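Reviewers of the previous submission asked for a worked example of the structure-prediction workflow described in the proposal, so we include one complete record here. The input consisted solely of the amino acid sequence. No template or homolog information was supplied to the procedure at any stage.
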Amino acid sequence: MAKLLAIMASVDRVLAFIIKPIVVVISFLVAFLLAYGIFARAVLGTAVFGLEELVLLGAMWLYMLGAVLASRDRSHLSGDFTQIMFKNPKVIRSFHILASFISLFMAIMFATWSYDLLYWAVKKGQTTTALKMPWYLSQSSLFVASVLFVFYQLRDMLNDISAFRMIDNTGHVRQ
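From that input alone, the workflow returned the following structure tokens.
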């Protein structure tokens, strides 16, 4: 399991190297496009054709990649009350494994749903109204993010199992 976790850590470093700059660039683009749209309407008295569609595309990818980074860092919302209710480290780690398993199952379900949505969007060939961009450009963000959610949930579950195995019968962590 240690070798698999090491491989996953390497993949994680590559993913972070790719995703973080993309999030920064998309953030700047969305902010610029929104500011330009406001400037064009308020100062120039004209609307920018298709601007909302570009902002929506950027916002979808920004939101999904941001969620991936939160999943990567395990900084998403969680309600961990087990440490208050229980003192035994094995019991606490068991609940962590259960939570990781449930989260992994939900991520797989989300990946399945988002794949079906993406497949349907490609098959239907729907486009946006103004710029005629294919809808699957924004919907693909759901699928990409869901695949990465599965990867990070699997990593978290394996880490939780590994941490559980490190606790001896007295409740102390083995070195």
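Residues 123 and 136 are 10 Å apart (CA to CA). We consider this example representative of the routine output the project will generate in years two and three.
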